[in-house]
Each structure stands twice: as structure tokens, then as C-alpha cells.
UniProtKB/TrEMBL annotation:
It comes from the Bacteria. It comes from Blautia hansenii DSM 20583. One of its GO terms (molecular function) is NAD binding. Catalyzes the reversible oxidation of 3-phospho-D-glycerate to 3-phosphonooxypyruvate, the first step of the phosphorylated L-serine biosynthesis pathway. Also catalyzes the reversible oxidation of 2-hydroxyglutarate to 2-oxoglutarate. Pathway: Amino-acid biosynthesis; L-serine biosynthesis; L-serine from 3-phospho-D-glycerate: step 1/3. Gene3D superfamilies: 3.30.70.260, NAD(P)-binding Rossmann-like Domain. It catalyses: (R)-2-hydroxyglutarate + NAD(+) = 2-oxoglutarate + NADH + H(+); (2R)-3-phosphoglycerate + NAD(+) = 3-phosphooxypyruvate + NADH + H(+). This is D-3-phosphoglycerate dehydrogenase.
Length: 387
């Protein structure tokens, strides 16, 4: 029996994939695995028993990764599963920033509905007029799952698209329309684009990457869209630019006291991934990844441990070890197993930065004592007997 705990509501389409041997617990401390969306985990203590956290979504800035890693907790996310939902919000954001559709609707809602409503509407409409996005320059910072989709969609809408991503993945590059200009100097985007949208993860390296200096370079009347994270942008500087008439609109998916109800901002309450499709996709992917990890020890789409695929164990036993990526670890593992007379059938050792993961299939069942001896090795964070 496995226990899972949901820190946020998770789509039933995903949770229904758990077979009967999985139970949804109401107590986080009992969980083998935790599913989460945007809930802040930085001040939570997860139990020793918890082996995995699955973020049903992309951004993992709500999870203390270093702390989890050192507890041997594998953190998963669901790359691309909600990207289409965000893409559609970005397109909507560009349209709403270009024409005063919201102002027009609000004006109409306040009107008395009388026989002459059509006549009054025709007379007033000029105050809500705007511009088209076709033919305008769009700069995209971050060409990952979302950035690529926004870029391709914008091409179809007739925009001239400039993309910047020094770390673009081969997959993303394959999916990118050939009509997109790949820019190596981010300042070119700041200088030349009419619309700028940011799609990078929030990390120490990207925090406040758009600040006063970047805004100063931008064209007058630029529209800045932020469906990634509020802390990527110096929003005090944005509000000053909006006030000064330098920036036309700031479209953001993140409400906070700086931007909520500020003039010329369009703020949505973190709706990017809030579609039936995105919620289902994320939940299904998260659940499948968790099950493969809990039952087979396989890792796919982890943000803190390397990928590892040993399939289903066909030998008598399997154990997995989460540990630091330093010399002499494997030799210590094989010594413990050798001393206990355990024969290794297959072994996988993978690393991701400072951390590593070892999967060992053996020809006889593994005892708790052997697992304890492995766990006692310095810089071993977790040992699991899978079979
Ligand atoms: N508003 C919402 O509901 C949602 C927001 N997000 C946010 O959007 C972010 C991006 O999501 P995805 O596209 O799915 O992630 P992704 O991981 O597929 O793409 C991120 C891209 O940013 C690039 N990048 C990293 N640092 C960069 C830098 N300094 N300059 C330029 N590019 C850089 C990476 O190379 C990668 O290609 C997430 O981390 C999350 O914070 C994601 C989904 C929903
Ligand atoms: O996937 C992401 O990074 C998101 O921001 C979506 O967050 P949510 O799952 O809607 O709370």
C-alpha cells in the first residue's frame, strides 16, 4: 500500500490513475509521495517516509529543492503539460493590451439598456479603439515549452517574432518555426520589440532580470507580459514606467500589492494553467511519474535527481540509493553488498550536478540490515528496497 497526499487540489483525471494499492491520506506525515501545484513548501517539514514530491506544473520555486535533495526526496515536475494553457493566455494578454476590450465591456455593463443603446455604443466606441498585433514585433525571452508555443502562434497571427534563449534545448529548437529570429543579444529584444514576453524559470540567476536599465532601453509604448513569475521583474520600476507613459501596459498573471489595481496593468489571478486540459495533463503526468518511481525506482522529469530507467526489475531484488556525486561512493556500495554475499546483476549510476542516483538489481532478496549499512555511508541520503 502507498499513501499520497495532495497539498493542492489535483485533477481527478490524474488521481484516478492510481490503482487500488494507493490511498489518498489526509495526513501529510503519512505520505510516501506528495502532489502539489503552487502551495509554498518552503516552511513545511516532510516526513522521513516521504520519498517524492510531484509538482503538477512547471515552476518549482515553491519547493525547497536543496533541502529535499539532501533528504533524498525526488522532486518531479511535468514539463510542457500546461504550456498550451499559458500560450493561450499570453495571446489573450497581447490582444487585451492592444485594444480596450475590457474598457468597452465595462462601459456597456454600466449603461441603462434602452432603445438607443446601439446608437450610444456607436458614438462611444472610439474611446476603446486600439491597434492590431499583426505586423508588430514580439520578443520572447525563454524558448522552452511555453516560449516556443507562443512564438509559433504569434507567427500565425502575423507578428515578427524574435526569440532569446542561450540554453535552448534541442527539442525546443526542433519545434520552433523557422520564421523566428533567434537573437543572441537580449538587449536587441529590449530595444526593438513592441511586445515583450518572458518565459524563464525563477532562479537566483533570473530574479529581477528585467529592471530599470532594461526598461530604459525599451521602445516607448512597449507592452510587457509576464506569465512566468512576478519576481523576474522589478515591478516598482515597471509601475514608474507605466506612470511616466513610457510603458503602455504591463500584463501579469501574478497579483501582488505593487501591481494589483495599478494604472495600466492587466492583472490575472495566476490563471495560466487553470484550464481543464492543463490540469488533467499535469495530474496524469505527475501520477505516472510518481508510480514509476515508487514501484520501480525509475526517475523521469525530476528537477533534482538524474533520469534513471531500469524498467521493471526482473531479478530477485532491487535497491536504489540517493547520494552525493563524489568519488568512492560506488566502491563503498559494492563493498557492503559483497560483504553481505549479495551478487549484483545490474547496476545504473547517474548524476545530475552535485547529486547522484544508483539503482542496483541483485540476485537475492536484500535484507533491512544491508539497506541500513548502505544508509550509514556518509553522503547517502536515502536507500529504498524496491523489491
Ligand atoms: N502562469 C502560469 O500559470 C504558469 C507559469 N509558468 C512559469 O513559466 C516558466 C516557464 O515554463 P516552461 O516554458 O514550461 O519551462 P521550460 O523549462 O520548458 O522553459 C524555460 C526556458 O527558459 C530558458 N531560460 C532559462 N534561463 C534563461 C535566461 N536567463 N534567459 C533566457 N532563457 C532562459 C531555458 O533554457 C528554457 O528553455 C515556469 O518556470 C513557470 O515559472 C509555467 C506554467 C504555468
Ligand atoms: O506550472 C506552473 O509553473 C504554474 O505556475 C501553474 O501553477 P498552478 O498549477 O496553476 O498553481
Amino acid at each position: 500500500m502507498y499513501e499520497y497526499y495532495c497539498l493542492n487540489p489535483i485533477s481527478a483525471v490524474g488521481l484516478d490513475k492510481f490503482p487500488a494499492k494507493y490511498e489518498n491520506t489526509e495526513c501529510m506525515q503519512e505520505a510516501d509521495a506528495i502532489l502539489v501545484r503552487s502551495a509554498d513548501m518552503h516552511n513545511l517539514e516532510v516526513a522521513e517516509k516521504t520519498a517524492a514530491v510531484a509538482r503538477a506544473g512547471a515552476g518549482v520555486n515553491n519547493i525547497p529543492l536543496e533541502k529535499m535533495t539532501k533528504k533524498g526526496v525526488v522532486v518531479f515536475n511535468t514539463p510542457g503539460a500546461n504550456a498550451n494553457g499559458v500560450k493561450e493566455m499570453v495571446i489573450a494578454g497581447m490582444l487585451l493590451a492592444s485594444r480596450d476590450i475590457i474598457g468597452g465591456i465595462e462601459w456597456l455593463e454600466k449603461q441603462d439598456v434602452t432603445e438607443d443603446i446601439a446608437k450610444r455604443a456607436e458614438k462611444q466606441k472610439k474611446q476603446f479603439a486600439g491597434c492590431e498585433i499583426s505586423g508588430k514585433k514580439l520578443g520572447i525571452i525563454g524558448l522552452g515549452a511555453i516560449g516556443v508555443r507562443v512564438a509559433n502562434a504569434a507567427i500565425h497571427l502575423g507578428m515578427e517574432v524574435y526569440g532569446y534563449d542561450p540554453y535552448i534545448s534541442v527539442d525546443a529548437a526542433w519545434n520552433l518555426s523557422r520564421s523566428i529570429y533567434h537573437i543572441n543579444d537580449i538587449n536587441m529584444i529590449y530595444r526593438d520589440c513592441d511586445y515583450i514576453t518572458i518565459h524563464v524559470p525563477l532562479t537566483d540567476a533570473t530574479r529581477k532580470m528585467i529592471g530599470k536599465e532594461e526598461i530604459a532601453q525599451m521602445k516607448d509604448d512597449v507592452v510587457l507580459l509576464n506569465f512566468a513569475r512576478d519576481l523576474l521583474v522589478d515591478e516598482e520600476a515597471v509601475c514608474e514606467a507605466l506612470k511616466a507613459g513610457k510603458m503602455k501596459k504591463y500584463v501579469t498573471d501574478f497579483a501582488n500589492p505593487t501591481v494589483a489595481n495599478a494604472p495600466n496593468t492587466l492583472v490575472t489571478p495566476h490563471l495560466g494553467a487553470s484550464t481543464e486540459e492543463s490540469e488533467d495533463n499535469c495530474a496524469v503526468m505527475a501520477v505516472k511519474q510518481l508510480m514509476d518511481y515508487l514501484e520501480n525506482g525509475n526517475i523521469k522529469n525530476s528537477v533534482n535527481y538524474p533520469s534513471c530507467d531500469g524498467g521493471t526489475c526482473i531479478d530477485a531484488g532491487r535497491l536504489t540509493i540517493n547520494h552525493k556525486n563524489i568519488p568512492n561512493m560506488i566502491s563503498q556500495f559494492t563493498k557492503v553488498l559483497g560483504d553481505a554475499g549479495v551478487n549484483i546483476a545490474n547496476m545504473i549510476n547517474k548524476s545530475k550536478g552535485d547529486y547522484a542516483y544508483t539503482m542496483i538489481d541483485v540476485t537475492m532478496p536484500i535484507s533491512k540490515e544491508v539497506a541500513q549499512a548502505l544508509k550509514a555511508i556518509e553522503e547517502v541520503y536515502r536507500v529504498r528496497i524496491i523489491k
